[in-house]
């Protein structure tokens, strides 16, 4: 659990500042589960430049509670949590100073989103909160007020958790929970998981990963691990300490993210995926007469494929559909075996490329219209799909035919510039399988829309 915090102060000499406003959002890694926001009477004047910056003045604070009156609530909000703040050293120092004045030793583990953003977003020119969230397309209201800045820090931290493909932040949290003696049992773990689409991570006590998986129903799938009777299931049951998860909303993102993170983290109970599951492919090749033939063949990495398939039957069905939709000669595509079948087809629908009733140039224009619709052929586009909540969308970026990664964005902040999308993207490796997985998913599943650039 994280306590994400922002504090506004009076300004003044080091260690003599007083708190004027505090906001704490309790965040479980996925959503806010509690919050505390309050003005605070610092009992000392506010510096004029701070009044101008925050809009908080001395008159506003006369009837506000003093720090000792909110101290108990602050302890409740931060107990057994990691404190997260933008420039955490400052906020932590201010809190420790205030509690020290009350005779209480406030001690808590901290995470700084400035330091995390420098590590996970090194390409950003500025890591100040205002400039950073603007570059990342994160909406922010009430800038320089505790609630607005803390809420922006929540959204920034959520993005940083997604960017952390090595799961270093989560592993550190698990180690912290071990120190606190928190050791959930299997049923407690299952009850804490959502019945939603996403990725799940099964951890040992030291935070290391035993298994990474994806599912349309995370809780149901993890329950299968915990009730399974196979050797691997028994090993997982004996060694599991906790399970973390990331909702994706989009099944496609879950599929791509699982593949990438297994390669990065190499959990001991994940079987490494075979070299490729797509053993058949359609190739476009000109014959001796100049006609472009679409041929279904065993996949050959030396040749440029149009689409790939997991089986010959799947590829054959797709090729029949393509030939019918674009009125292509199925005999040229190698789909009809008997002469009579081909002639019958010629009479009804085919222009007769196989018997040269249509010129190669005319026929190839029709084939080219199909090839131009190939989703990845040097195109730049964004696949828009469901997000993790109703107020969010997911975006998968493909630039010049290469898969770059995915992102989530708020509906209140439309992604209409590639520059913003590049800033918030969680980068992923592009290879033949990612390309083919995306193509296969789009052929078989519903998605919201595709935006071409």
Layout of SSEs?
Layout: E1 2-9, E2 19-27, E3 32-39, H1 48-54, H2 58-61, H3 67-78, E4 82-85, H4 88-101, E5 110-112, H5 113-120, H6 129-135, H7 146-163, H8 168-179, H9 186-191, E6 198-203, E7 209-215, H10 218-227, H11 231-239, E8 242-247, H12 251-265, E9 280-286, E10 292-298, E11 307-309, H13 312-325, H14 339-348, H15 360-371, E12 381-386, E13 392-399, E14 402-410, H16 418-424, E15 426-427, H17 432-444, E16 449-452
Parallel strand pairs: 1-4, 4-5
Antiparallel strand pairs: 1-2, 2-3, 6-7, 6-8, 9-10, 9-11, 12-13, 12-16, 13-14, 14-15
Rounded to the nearest angstrom, the distance between the terminal CA atoms is: 40 Å
Classification by helices and strands: alpha+beta
Order of adjacent strands in the largest pleated sheet = 3-2-1-4-5
Radius of gyration: 29 Å
- Gross geometry: elongated
| Biggest sheet descriptor | 5 strands, mixed
Characterize the structure shown:
There is one protein chain. With 453 residues, this protein is an alpha+beta fold. 39% of the residues lie in helices and 21% in strands. The strands form 4 sheets. The chain has a 5-stranded mixed beta sheet. Strands 15-14-13-12-16 form a 5-stranded antiparallel beta sheet. A hairpin with a 4-residue loop joins strand 2 and strand 3 (32-39). Helix 5 (113-120) packs parallel to helix 7. The longest helix has 18 residues, at 146-163. The radius of gyration is 29 Å and the shape is elongated. The protein starts with a strand and ends with a strand. The mean pLDDT is 84.
């Amino acid at each position: 659990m994280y306590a994400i915090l922002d504090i506004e102060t009076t300004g003044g000499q080091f260690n003599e500042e007083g708190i004027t406003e505090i906001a704490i959002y309790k965040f479980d890694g996925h959503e806010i589960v509690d919050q505390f926001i309050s003005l605070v009477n610092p009992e000392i004047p506010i510096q004029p430049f701070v009044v101008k910056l925050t809009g908080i003045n001395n008159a506003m604070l006369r009837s506000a509670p003093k720090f000792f009156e909110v101290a108990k609530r602050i302890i409740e909000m931060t107990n057994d949590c990691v404190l997260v703040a933008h420039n955490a050293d400052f906020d932590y120092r201010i809190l420790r100073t205030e509690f020290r004045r009350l005779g209480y030793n406030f001690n808590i583990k901290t995470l700084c989103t400035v330091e995390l953003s420098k590590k996970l977003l090194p390409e950003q020119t500025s890591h100040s909160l205002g400039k950073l969230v603007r570059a990342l397309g994160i909406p922010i209201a009430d800038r320089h007020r505790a609630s607005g800045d803390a809420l922006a820090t929540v959204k920034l931290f959520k993005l940083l958790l997604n960017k952390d493909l090595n799961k270093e932040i989560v592993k550190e949290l698990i180690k912290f929970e071990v120190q606190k003696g928190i050791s959930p049992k299997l049923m407690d773990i299952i009850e804490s998981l959502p019945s939603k689409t996403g990725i799940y991570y099964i951890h040992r006590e030291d935070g290391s990963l035993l298994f990474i998986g994806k599912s349309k129903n995370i809780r149901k799938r993890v329950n299968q691990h915990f009730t399974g009777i196979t050797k691997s299931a028994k090993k997982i049951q004996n060694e599991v300490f906790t399970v973390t998860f990331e909702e994706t909303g989009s099944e496609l993102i879950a599929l791509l993210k699982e593949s990438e993170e297994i390669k990065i983290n190499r959990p001991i109970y994940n079987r490494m995926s075979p070299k490729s599951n797509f053993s058949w492919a359609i190739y476009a090749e000109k014959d001796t007469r100049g006609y472009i033939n679409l041929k279904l063949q065993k996949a050959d990495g030396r040749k440029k494929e149009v689409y790939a398939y997991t089986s010959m039957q799947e590829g054959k069905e797709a090729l029949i559909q393509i030939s019918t939709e674009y009125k292509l000669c199925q005999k040229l595509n190698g789909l009809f075996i008997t002469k009579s079948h081909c002639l019958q087809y010629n009479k009804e629908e085919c222009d007769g490329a196989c018997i040269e009733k249509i010129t190669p140039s005319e026929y190839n224009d029709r084939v080219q219209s199909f090839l131009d619709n190939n989703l990845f052929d040097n195109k730049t586009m964004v696949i828009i799909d469901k997000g993790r909540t109703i107020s969010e969308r997911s975006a998968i970026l493909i630039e010049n035919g290469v898969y770059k990664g995915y992102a989530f964005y708020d509906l209140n902040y439309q992604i209409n510039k590639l520059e913003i999308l590049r800033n918030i993207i969680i980068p992923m490796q592009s290879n033949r399988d990612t390309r083919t997985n995306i193509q296969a998913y789009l052929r078989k599943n519903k998605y919201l829309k595709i935006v071409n650039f």
